[in-house]
């Protein structure tokens, strides 16, 4: 049995193989073809670059902003060699993705004086909202925090059932009411229960729909007003590309969320939507979901997402995960094989 087979099950290995295959034919290879035989960045190269960015799910507005910055560099320096292009692209993409937010939440710590730390989780149906709540609860509990969940999505019975399953799986209490109950009332009761039990963290689910509508937005706004959350996280499916960007913009205009969780970043998506979301709503991307398992929630690293968009793959994260499960020598062998495209 090979190292890959020990590290991943059959399904995970297939996803990994598919993800690595995509990195061989993504943005970096397109740019390489565009600049082949050229010594300087010209209009043709910029046109190819623009097409490659949009194909990678980077929105039109964000793409044009990046192209304009590169054009400004060309104009300023009078000459820009093609060998410098990828480095400049990485700089520009990282500059958009990086934020100066406090990373306390990413360490699953609670800011001083913020107990209970109240998290409101919002998003449309099907993006992995309930799963994200379960993963957040898992990580907070692993960090030694007491957690309580609130089932304020009373629009769908299945949503409450799913959250109950996650609460049982993680081993944390949950506050719920009957189907059709007032979501703001459920959220308020959850907060009061958390205070009475001296819980560290409260995570409240909210209703979603298949698409954005006024009723859903009004409902979430009332829930937010009822509990005054410390953190409002917007969960979005990264595989929906520019639809994710439009949804993020609509939610931010009405709910004014604090950060983003990108789900389904498990090798099947190009990641460009992350860049557009950050550029348009200017809110930090805090976590990425990389699978269905309880531990498949990773802290967001801008440099790694930049590499992913450029088609270089997130080799660093893969090796880190290997090191957690196997010896360092095995991880080194894995890293060498990946870098050799084996």
Distance between the termini: 16 Å
Annotation, overall tally of beta strands: 8
> If you average the pLDDT, what whole number results?
77
Largest sheet: 8 strands, mixed
Question: Helices, strands, pairings?
Answer:
Elements: H1 3-7, H2 10-24, H3 27-35, H4 43-55, H5 60-77, H6 85-97, E1 117-122, H7 129-142, E2 147-151, H8 157-170, E3 174-175, H9 183-196, E4 201-205, H10 214-227, E5 231-237, H11 242-255, E6 259-263, H12 272-281, E7 285-289, E8 297-299, H13 302-309, H14 315-325, H15 328-339
Parallel strand pairs: 1-4, 1-5, 2-3, 2-4, 5-6, 6-7
Antiparallel strand pairs: 7-8
What does this entry look like structurally?
Helix 14 packs antiparallel against helix 15. The two termini are 16 Å apart. The protein is built from 15 helices and eight strands. By secondary structure, it is of the alpha/beta class. The N terminus is likely disordered. 54% of the residues lie in helices and 11% in strands. An eight-stranded mixed beta sheet has the order 3-2-4-1-5-6-7-8, sandwiched between helices. The radius of gyration is 22 Å and the shape is elongated.
